Amino acid sequence: MNAIWLALFGCVAFAIGYRFYSRFLAERIFRLDPNFVTPAHALRDDTDYLPTNRWVLWGHHFTSVAGAAPIVGPAIAVYWGWLPAVLWVVLGSLFAAGVHDFGTLTLSARHRGQSVGTLADKLIGKRAKLLFLFIILILVLMLNAVFAWVIANLFINFPASVLSVLIQIPLAVWIGHRVYRRGGKMLIPSLLALMVMYAAALLAGQFEFLQIDLAGAFTAMAGGEDATLLFGLSPISSAFLVWIIALMSYVYIASVLPVWKLLQPRDTINSHQLVVGLVLLYLGLAVGGPQLTAPAFNADAEMSFYPLLFITIACGAISGFHGLVASGTTSKQLSHEPDARLIGYSGALGEGMLALISIIAVATLFATQADFTATYSSFAAAGANGLSSFVQGSGQLISHLGLPANVGSTLVAVIVVSFAATTLDSAVRLMRYIIAELGSEYGMPALSHKHVATSIAVIASAALVILPQGPKGFGSGGYLLWPLFGTSNQLLAGISLMLVSVWLKRQGRPVIYTLAPMVFLMIMTLWAMVQQVVLDWSGMGSNDPQWLLFTFGSLIMVFALWILLEASRSLKSPARVSAHES
Fold first, then answer.
1. Which of 94, 177, 304, 582 falls between 20 and 30 A from 340, CA-CA?
2. Distance between CA atoms of 137 and 115, rounded to whole angstroms?
3. Measured distance between the N- and C-terminal CA atoms of the chain, rounded to whole angstroms
4. Where are the transmembrane segments (predicted)?
């Protein structure tokens, strides 16, 4: 089967969904009001609260949520066959992710830009809020640690991508100063910055002296890979440590700066980068017309696709992290409430398009189905090979346009690193908000200071990354808890949809459009979590109990069920309309 048909199916479905379903949600369910004074205006401080052009804000939101996850998850999920993965990406984006992202953004904008964690107090109760904040804190900490590990390793494995990513920082600062201090538009400068980035990537790919290869430099300095350098580490591990220190220093600065100085212009550049990347990939697909060599259903899969498919593909179908971004940073920059439809719903569909092309890139990479089966021989093998298969498959798609496959792979690596860094920056900023909220809750005002809260966030994330020995070697400590990410992330999305449903019920509006995806998601996620916690991590299904995962997994599962029970009481209470909220 020609892969073009899959792309057409997804793109047409997304266009219809945005044109009709998102408009229905905006007018009949969320009832967006063009006269409503958003928090960006009411609480403007030019640091976190800042009225922002909707296309600039769309770029921030899109690139913050579209990290490596909508690439890696779908690339792994092809293990069960491309058909289940495509159906979940398309239907999930239309009826779950779009509703979730749109809903949490609107809910937060109607409540002074407060996060979903804080809103749990007002909508469900103080106890639910504290339980919810605990789940969010663990989730963001895991994400920070693992994304830092991913970026550092991509820098080591693709040294030609480093110069392009580093150049983006001063370019973004220049754009922010030019637009917000001297006046002007962001479009042309950001496009010029993108051209400079790509030129740097292409030149670095051709000229070795432009590649920032710390691992190679340390190996030459030490006299071989078996030698030791920093703290008795190998040259590669020493390079990894240096990159982690550099990354954490960067995210500290980026997360405390006013949003206009770095976050907004950098995210605008990355949004154009994603659009360019998607255009190249889909255009390469249209020109090349490759065949799907992966099976529609993998009959040899060692386990059923349900419920694991629905937690393997999170970003790209529905993800709780999106609600954190929507209510944590995006709602504070929303200038006009009707913009929430474009930013929230179409942002989710844009990520769905990225997930869709990720599936297609993997499903068309292999010459034969036997080659696919050899690479995706087990779920563990799919996890190990998913990202590399996407990079190779994307390079192959871009090569249909006449560009060498290695050039295409370098460009894809730059995109992945840029998005992962954007997500890491936003996640640290979100973690700062959560720590400040907990400090306020427990009478520790020092934690509300942005530098104190940010320091705790960065130090905790760095400590988890550089644990002496993680499952993937030095610096992969975040992966000790990473098996919890999929279920925790989806539980967060389900609880966020529950909060939106409670709010809608109090406004006397229909809740079926938010409650239905919430029920489906919670059933699949709790099913998967019971399998993991009770059967896998407790040791019942094997002779190797994993007590760390079992302990945290049990706590998160109990807390989630507790929150849902308390929320169900709120749903049963009579509707009451608040003039401020409606």
1. 177
2. 13
3. 49
4. 85-109, 130-152, 158-175, 187-207, 227-253, 274-293, 305-330, 342-367, 411-431, 452-468, 480-504, 511-535, 547-565
